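REQUEST ID: PR-0412
SUBMITTED BY: lab tech R.K.
PRIORITY: routine
TASK: structure prediction, single protein chain
INPUT:
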Amino acid sequence: MKVLLTVYLGVWIWALAAYWFFTGGSDAMGYSLLFLWLLLPATTFVVSFLTGKKDYWGKRKWFLVLAFGLMYMLAEYATFGLENDSYDYCAKNIGYDAFGHAHFDYYYKGEFIDHIQLNVNGEHNVKNALAAIAAAKRIGIDVDTMKKGLLGFTGAKRRFELKGTCNDFTVVDDYAHHPTEIRATLESAKNYPHNELWCVFQPHTYTRTKALMDEFADVLATAERVILADIYAARETDTLGVSSSDLCDKINERGGKAYYFPTFDEIEAFLLENCIHGDVL
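STATUS: complete
OUTPUT:
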C-alpha cells in the first residue's frame, strides 16, 4: 500500500536523534534523515523501500517500526494506488500515447474526478502523479491547475531522458541501478515506439551486484538484448569475487541475450554495428 504522510517536525527530530544515537550514523540512512530534517518537510511520500543489501535493515528493523509507528499516530495520512477503490487516490484505465506517455482516470474515494494526461513514461510515474495530486489537494489546489502542472512536467534528468538518435535508433538515458528501478525503466521503454529494445547496463558497486545478482539477472533478462560493462567500483576495492561476466552468464541462463565487454569502446563499436532503424537503446 502506498501511503502519504503529513509529518510533524517533532517526529523527524526524534527519528534523526534515535538513529544517530543507536547506530552512530555510520550509514547513508543517517545522511538521508539529516537531509529530510534540514528541509523541514510538511509532507512525505512513502512509496517503497529499496536497499543494495538484503540484510540492510537487520538490527535497524526496530528503528523502522518505531519511527513509522510514531508517524502513524501523529500524522494525517491517505493512500494511493492503481485500479482499486480501496485507495483514497486511485488511477484507473491507464493507457499510453504514441510516445509512451501515460494517461489515466483519476478517482478520489471511489468517485471519478477527471482524466489526467502525463508527459512522462511509465506506470511508476502514474503512482508519482497520484502522490502529487494528493499533496496538491491537501493544500487546496484545484484539479485544472493540477492537470496543467502534471502535463508540464517532462521528467527528471537521467530518468528516461531522451538523448537523441544515432543511425536512426533512439537513445534514452536512465540512472536506474537497482533491480526494481531497472524493471520500471524497461517497462516504460516497452510502451515507447520501438523495434528492438537494447539495454546497456553498468552495475554499481561489487556489494550490490553480489547481493542482488539473481534479481539483476531476472529483470535484465526481460530486455531483448543486454550489454554489460565492468562493475563501477565507486568507493569499493574488494571485488568479492563477482564480475559483470558472471551476471552476463546468469542472464543468458534465464533465456536472455546478454553480452559482456570490458571496455566502452568495444560496447560502442558493437552497438553501432548491431542497432538498427527503430531500435531503442
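NOTES: DSSP finds ten helices and eleven strands in the chain.
REVIEWED BY: pending
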